[in-house]
Design goal:
Elements lengths: L8 E4 L2 E2 L3 E5 L3 E2 L2 E3 L11 E3 L4 E2 L2 E6 L5 H10 L7 E8 L4 E15 L11 E16 L2
Antiparallel strand pairs: 1-2, 1-9, 3-8, 4-7, 5-6, 8-11, 9-10, 10-11
């Protein structure tokens, strides 16, 4: 059964990002090792690599220069190499909500074009690279 996704929240460190319009949660992927040998018949054989990798975390939001959201995005990009930012994304679940949590470093903070039309809005896109494990559990 499908569910709506409206209502997801994103927290970087201690700051809840405002005016978030799109969230791409990091996907999990694991490489495969070909273990086929001369005695293998019919088809190749594989085993999974020991470690999985998470894809990029991408969040799009309305851009407001100098806001706490803007400041948190800049801080994520300028964090020191040994200090990744704690990220929590709260999403709707089958029942209630669940928190997807991981640590990440900022990779890119793109402030998009300034539209000339008064009916348009300016947005920003933050891309982060997760490091370490990702957890997902019911919101406490």
């Amino acid at each position: 059964m499908a569910k709506t996704t409206h209502g997801a929240t994103v927290v970087l460190g201690a700051t809840t990002l405002a005016a978030v319009t799109n969230v791409k949660i990091p996907n999990l992927s694991r490489g495969m090792i070909d273990v086929s040998h001369h005695g293998t018949t019919t088809a190749k054989e594989f085993i999974p690599e020991d470690l999985y990798e998470m894809g990029d975390f991408v969040v799009t939001m309305d851009y407001i220069a100098g806001s706490t959201t803007d400041d948190a995005c800049i801080a994520a990009l300028t964090s020191t190499p040994g200090s990744p930012v704690a990220v929590t994304v709260t999403v709707k679940a089958a029942t209630g909500t669940e928190d997807v949590e991981f640590n990440a470093f900022g990779v890119n903070y793109e402030i998009q074009d300034l539209p000339a039309a008064s009916a348009d809005k300016q947005q920003a896109v933050l891309t982060m690279k997760p490091t370490g494990a990702r957890t997902q559990a019911p919101t406490a």
